Structures are given as structure tokens and as C-alpha cells.
């Protein structure tokens, strides 16, 4: 909007028009929490529904949506590595009390932190003159865990956390979904839900929050599958990719080229990245306003083999991350299997069984009973459960242990046996797409906010808008208001989302609708009483046409969902209602 910052204007509009506000505002608020108002809650829900349409609904029998609790037991996040690794390095000024995330503070001072270890960051911090704000002495850097901790029930020993990502509800239920989906070699699990991260310094409206909505999709696949059926129809789509966080410009290439060159790890990750690009375009964010930035190894999450951040332009050269697309390998399933003791491997049947040679202990139960008496059953069970590696270790040591007692291996013999296996067990690998609904809301608003003849117009895509239709009687008398209210009821029955406004001049009412992004206004005037036609007004062009009331629901659906131009829907209004 001219020389003004769309990012700041979007914040101002959000507060003024009931899109979102700071939470607990009457008590001064707390950074990192926001409330969505009447015009924001439904708009955000529509954004989430659009994500579902692309990532879930368009992929029947491939992607399945689930819902899991927001509180998870400590054991889950201990196994996933979040308890130990979900940390940032922080320092506090001893004079003013401000707390800083060390790498962010150093970067804002022009110091490159890429590739630096915790020790190197602490050493660089120690050489600074002091607090960037007051000059006070900075305390020694400490590791700060971003998890919200709580206790489950009245027992303080039963620790839980507000989940930092919805994925940690998905991985523990993998076995159930794998069985329900008939043990497919590839499938996706999606989830939308609230997550919490106890950020050090949240800022920027809904850009950095402590509680937010995450939309995640985990693609599970056999790592030996070289091709993805999903990728085959997306391979020629282009992506803007950037490996250097410096001044290098993104390079445009097809998904096929990016995978074949090794730039993107695998086809499942590439498919998720292409779908992410398509999603942003559907939100009204043009292709030149987003790109993928590869996260360097020292900045990646502990579970990631490769991560691409989806960066979107807020305003001018101000960019923000709105999604992370990661190749997680088999880290999660393997970690949860080892921690829980539950086998989370998939099974792959082979066309031709594999015959393997194995070593097994051979024993005489009578001799075992003579030597070990009541322990005989436990000794035999241990012998039966031993793997080949266990057997070789026992032979080398001359014993193995059962309940702390050494069992002499000299009384057993070892035999070679053949074993036919009809398939193999393996850990599925995971490619993830993780999107932040709240950041995407803000980016969408910043791109949608335009100006026409000095008035703000929120030109969000029509299919995302809510309300969808403004119904306005030209006057509050002569039955125009009654006809308009009947029209509202009819549109509700037609499963459209109308809003009614009869306060003030018609031009002011149009302006209010434009500012919250309502795509079309329907004006009931005196001609309506004569010929049962109404005026339709386009939010973006301010063009007006007349349409018969009987045709209105279908015409509105064409305009909102099918991209029809207003002039295609009716006759140009001879005496349009004035703006």
C-alpha cells in the first residue's frame, strides 16, 4: 500500500476488524499468545480446510487424518529427543534483565553463527562489550528447553508436556495405522492441532507464537522404493530452491531435476515441497513471493537428515518461514521402538523366500535341570530367544546371564540350521511437511491487503473468504429489509456464508465488507420488489450486475468457487448502487 509497510498495515487491520488480537489484552497480555475474533476464526478455519483439500482430501487411500492429545507423557518426548535436544542457547543481561537467544542476538549484530558449536557461540558472546540495549554485563550462556512442562493428574512424578509438534502424537500410533491401512508400503498420516513452544522472545503479532496451530503430514515409505506414485504427476512442477542463506538468488528447477541431481533427498520430500508451493499459491501468495531455503546441517533439528524451510515474503525484503519440509529418515520409528519395546517395523513379503543359515544352541533339558534346578524353564527360554550374535558373544565369554546368574555354555553345543524367510522387517522412512497456520494467516493478509481510491480492500481468494456474501438492503424500510433477511436465510440453506448489514450509507457498508475481504455484495433495492432481481457487486473491481433471485445461489457459487467473472453472471446494472 504505497510506501506503507503491508506487514504493519495487516496488523492494524487485524485488530480493527476483529481478525486477531493479543490474548488477555485487558490484563496487559502476554507475548506469544493471540485470540482470533469473529472475522479471524472462520478465515483461519478456511485456510486449514484448504490445506486439508490439497494434502488430505485430494489423496484418498494414501493420506489419512488423525487426532491425538495435546499433552504427551515425558517418555514420548524423551524417546523423540525433544527433552534433551529441543533447546536454545540464551543469555540474560545482569543490568536490565533482558533475555536473548544467543544466535539471534549475534546475527543481529552482524556476526555469522553458521556452523558454530555451543562452545564457540559462548566464546563469541564472552567477547561482546555488553547488552545491545543498555550495555550491562551479559551472563554466561545457558541451555534453555522450549518445552512447556506440566504434571498429569495429582501425581507430580507423572510428567507431561504440551506437544511441540503434532508429529509426536503420530509416531506412537504408527503400528495401529499401519495395520488399519492393510500394511501399505507407502502412506501418509496428517494431523492439524495446537502445539506449544516456550519461545524466548515472541514477537510480530502472529509471526512467533508460544501456542499455535500446526498442520503436519508424515509420508511413511519403504526406503528401497526408488519412485513415488505421487511424485510422478508432480515431477515437472518447478520449485524455487536456495541453498545459501546469503545473497544468492533462488534457482528455479523442476522437481524431477532436483531429485535426480541429489539436491532434494527423495521423491516423497520433493512431492511434499511441490504441494506446499501449490498451497501458498492457493492462499493468494504469488510464486515470486516464496522459495525453499535449505537448512544447513548445524541448524537442522536433531531428527532431520535434510530440511527445506518454505520462506514467504511479508513485505519488501522481509521474509519469514511458514513451513518446514524435512526428511526424517527412520529416526522416529526406531527411537520409539527402542524406548517402548514395541516392534514398529513394517513387513515386506518377498517373491522368493530367502534361506538363511543361522547358529543355534542345542541343549539337553535333563542336564540343565540337574545343574540349575528351578531355573530350568528360564534358562531354556533364554536359549530359545538368543540371536546369532547373542550366541557368539556367549561362546566367546563362556557364559550368559539369567537373572544375574551365570550359565555355563560348555554344556551346550552349537548347530547350523537353515531358516526360510518369506519377507523382511524394516523401519519405514518419513518425509514431513509441517505448516504453521498462524504465520500463513499473516502472510496471506499482508499479500491480500490492497488499496483502491484511498480505501483498504482485503483481496483474499474468494474461496477462502468468510463471510462470503454481504446482503445489504438499500433502505431499512418499505419491505427491503424483510426481503434482504429472507435472502440471508435462503443463502444459509444453500450452504453459503452470508452477513447482513443495514447500518449507514450503502457506500460505507461496501467499504466495511471490502476491508474484511467479503468477495461479493448483494444489494436489495426497489427494483428487487418489481422484478425479483438484485445487484451483485465485486469486491475487487467494484463492477455491478443484476441477477435474478432464483438464480442467485448458483451464480454466487460460480463466482466464489469456480472463478467466474462478475460480468459473466448477469446484465450490467443500469443504475448501480453507489460506492
Write up what this structure looks like.
- By secondary structure, this protein is α+β, with helices and mostly antiparallel strands.
- It folds into 4 domains: 6-85 and 146-331 and 431-436, BirA Bifunctional Protein, domain 2 (2-Layer Sandwich), CATH 3.30.930; 87-144; 352-424, no CATH class; 467-572, 3-Layer(aba) Sandwich (Rossmann fold), CATH 3.40.50.
- Strand 8 (148-151) and strand 9 (159-162) form a beta hairpin.
- Helix 2 (38-57) packs across helix 16 (437-448).
- The chain is elongated and about 105 Å long.
- The model has no long low-confidence stretch (mean pLDDT 92).
What descriptors fit this protein?
6-stranded mixed β-sheet, BirA Bifunctional Protein, domain 2, 579 residues, 29 strands, 9-stranded mixed β-sheet, alpha+beta
CATH topology of the largest domain: BirA Bifunctional Protein, domain 2
Q: How many structural domains can be distinguished in the coordinates?
A: 4
Number of beta-strand segments: 29
Sheet-strand content, in percent, reads: 25-35%
Overall SS class: alpha+beta
Task: Return the average pLDDT rounded to an integer.
Answer: 92
In quaternary terms, these chains amount to: single chain
For the largest beta-sheet, the strand count, sense and barrel status come to:
9 strands, mixed
Kindly provide the name of the CATH class of the largest domain.
Alpha Beta
Outline = elongated
- Rg over CA atoms: 31 Å
What distance lies between the first and last C-alpha atoms, to the nearest angstrom? 20 Å
User: How many DSSP H or I helices?
Assistant: 20
Give the name of the CATH superfamily of the largest domain. Answer: Bira Bifunctional Protein, Domain 2
Q: Please list the strands of the largest sheet in the order they lie side by side.
A: 3-10-11-21-16-15-14-12-13
| Overall CATH architecture of the largest domain | 2-Layer Sandwich
Helical content (DSSP H or I, runs of 4+) = 25-40%
Low-pLDDT residue intervals, each spanning 5 or more residues: none
Amino acid at each position: 500500500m504505497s510506501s506503507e509497510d503491508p506487514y504493519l498495515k495487516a496488523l492494524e487491520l487485524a485488530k480493527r476488524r476483529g481478525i486477531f488480537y493479543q490474548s488477555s489484552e485487558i490484563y496487559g497480555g502476554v507475548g506469544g499468545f493471540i485470540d482470533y475474533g469473529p472475522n479471524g476464526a472462520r478465515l483461519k478455519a478456511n485456510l486449514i480446510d484448504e490445506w486439508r483439500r490439497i494434502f488430505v482430501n485430494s489423496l484418498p487411500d494414501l493420506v489419512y487424518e488423525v487426532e491425538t492429545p495435546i499433552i504427551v507423557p515425558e517418555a514420548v518426548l524423551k524417546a523423540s529427543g525433544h527433552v534433551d535436544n529441543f533447546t536454545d542457547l540464551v543469555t540474560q543481561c545482569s543490568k536490565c534483565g533482558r533475555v536473548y537467544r544467543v544466535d539471534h542476538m549475534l546475527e543481529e549484530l552482524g556476526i555469522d553463527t553458521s556452523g558454530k558449536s555451543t562452545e564457540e557461540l559462548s566464546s563469541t558472546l564472552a567477547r561482546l562489550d555488553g547488552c545491545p540495549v543498555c550495555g550491562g554485563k551479559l551472563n554466561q550462556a545457558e541451555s534453555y528447553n522450549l518445552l512447556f512442562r506440566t504434571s498429569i493428574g495429582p501425581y507430580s512424578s507423572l510428567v507431561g508436556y504440551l506437544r511441540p509438534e503434532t508429529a509426536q502424537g503420530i509416531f506412537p500410533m504408527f503400528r495401529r495405522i499401519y495395520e488399519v491401512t492393510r500394511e501399505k508400503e507407502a502412506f501418509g498420516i496428517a494431523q492439524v492441532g495446537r502445539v506449544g513452544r516456550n519461545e524466548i522472545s515472541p514477537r510480530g503479532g502472529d509471526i512467533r507464537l508460544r501456542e499455535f496451530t500446526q498442520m503436519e503430514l508424515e509420508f511413511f515409505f519403504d526406503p528401497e522404493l526408488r519412485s513415488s506414485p505421487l511424485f510422478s504427476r508432480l515431477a515437472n512442477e518447478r520449485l524455487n530452491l536456495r541453498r545459501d542463506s546469503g545473497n544468492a538468488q533462488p534457482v528455479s528447477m523442476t522437481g524431477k531435476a532436483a531429485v535426480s541431481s541429489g539436491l532434494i533427498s527423495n521423491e516423497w520430500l520433493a512431492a511434499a515441497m511441490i504441494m506446499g508451493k501449490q498451497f501458498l499459491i492457493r492462499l493468494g501468495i504469488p510464486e515470486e513471493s516464496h522459495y525453499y531455503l535449505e537448512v544447513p546441517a548445524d541448524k537442522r533439528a536433531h531428527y532431520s537428515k535434510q530440511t527445506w524451510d518454505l520462506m514467504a515474503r511479508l513485505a519488501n525484503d522481509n521474509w519469514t518461514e511458514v513451513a518446514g519440509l524435512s526428511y526424517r529418515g527412520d529416526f522416529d520409528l526406531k527411537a520409539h521402538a527402542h524406548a517402548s519395546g514395541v516392534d514398529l517395523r513394517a513387513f515386506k513379503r518377498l517373491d522368493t523366500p530367502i534361506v538363511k543359515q543361522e547358529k543355534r544352541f542345542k541343549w539337553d533339558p535333563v542336564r540343565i535341570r540337574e545343574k540349575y534346578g528351578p531355573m530350568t524353564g528360564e534358562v531354556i527360554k533364554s536359549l530359545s530367544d538368543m540371536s546369532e550374535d547373542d550366541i557368539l558373544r556367549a561362546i566367546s565369554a563362556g557364559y550368559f546371564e539369567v537373572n544375574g546368574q551365570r550359565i555355563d555354555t560348555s554344556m551346550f553345543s552349537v548347530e547350523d540350521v537353515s531358516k526360510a524367510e518369506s519377507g523382511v522387517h524394516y523401519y519405514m522412512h518419513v518425509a514431513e511437511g509441517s505448516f504453521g497456520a498462524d504465520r500463513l494467516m499473516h502472510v496471506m493478509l499482508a499479500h491480500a491487503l490492497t488499496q483502491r481510491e484511498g480505501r483498504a480492500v482485503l483481496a483474499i481468494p474468494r474461496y477462502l473468504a468468510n463471510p462470503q456474501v454481504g446482503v445489504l438492503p438499500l433502505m431499512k424500510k418499505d419491505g427491503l429489509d424483510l426481503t434482504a433477511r429472507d435472502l440471508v436465510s435462503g443463502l444459509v440453506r444453500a450452504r453459503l456464508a452470508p452477513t447482513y448489514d443495514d447500518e449507514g450509507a450503502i457506500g460505507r457498508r461496501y467499504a466495511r465488507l471490502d476491508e474484511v475481504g467479503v468477495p461479493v455484495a448483494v444489494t436489495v433495492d426497489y427494483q428487487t420488489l418489481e422484478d425479483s432481481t438484485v445487484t451483485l457487486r465485486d469486491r475487487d473491481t467494484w463492477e455491478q450486475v443484476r441477477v435474478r433471485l432464483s438464480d442467485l445461489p448458483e451464480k454466487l457459487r460460480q463466482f466464489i468457487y469456480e472463478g467466474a467473472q462478475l460480468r459473466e453472471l448477469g446484465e450490467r446494472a443500469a443504475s448501480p448502487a453507489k460506492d
